[in-house]
Each structure stands twice: as structure tokens, then as C-alpha cells.
Amino acid sequence: EVTLTAKEFDLLWFLARHPRQVLTRSQLLDHVWGYEFEGDSSTITVNIRRLREKIERDPSQPRHILTAWGVGYKFEG
Which residues on adjacent β-strands are paired with residue 23? Predict the structure, then answer.
């Protein structure tokens, strides 16, 4: 069992609904935080790190939430 914050859950849900599709930070901010969100893309980085710490066996070598360098992230079930 894993305890997630509401935003961590929403982020994981959105990633999982688009398996193997690279999603940009901008797309994630728009769809998870909403178009009116005025924060920056570091919000995504922090939440991805926290998710990896909770769901990955070894967060330093993730198997589920992968980084597409220079683009964004993708979910590999």
C-alpha cells in the first residue's frame, strides 16, 4: 500500500492513462495543476521525485516513471 498526496495521485493517474507517451512538463502542469497554475516546471520535477520514492523499487533507477531528457516524462507500467 502506498500513501499519495492528491496531486501525486493525479499526476500518477494522468501518466498511467497515457502509457509510453512522452508528456512534457507543460502538458503535465496544464492537465494536472490546471491552466491557471502560476508555478513553474520545478513543481513537476519535485512531484516526480516524490512519486518515484514511493512507487519505485530503486528510485535512482526508475522502471515505471521514466525521464525523456529535454522533453518530459513517460509511464512504463
Answer: 73
Instruction: Give CA angle at 76 (49, 55), nearest 5°.
Output: 40
CA count, 13 A, side-chain hemisphere, 15: 25
Reduced to 3 states, what is the DSSP secondary structure of residue 64? Answer: coil
Residue 30: DSSP 8-state: I
Burial class (CB in 10 A: 0-12, 13-18, 19+), 73: buried
- Residue 68: which H helix or E strand, with range? strand 65-68
**pLDDT single digits (tens) 24-77:** 998 999 999 886 767 777 889 999 999 999 999 999 999 999 999 999 999 997
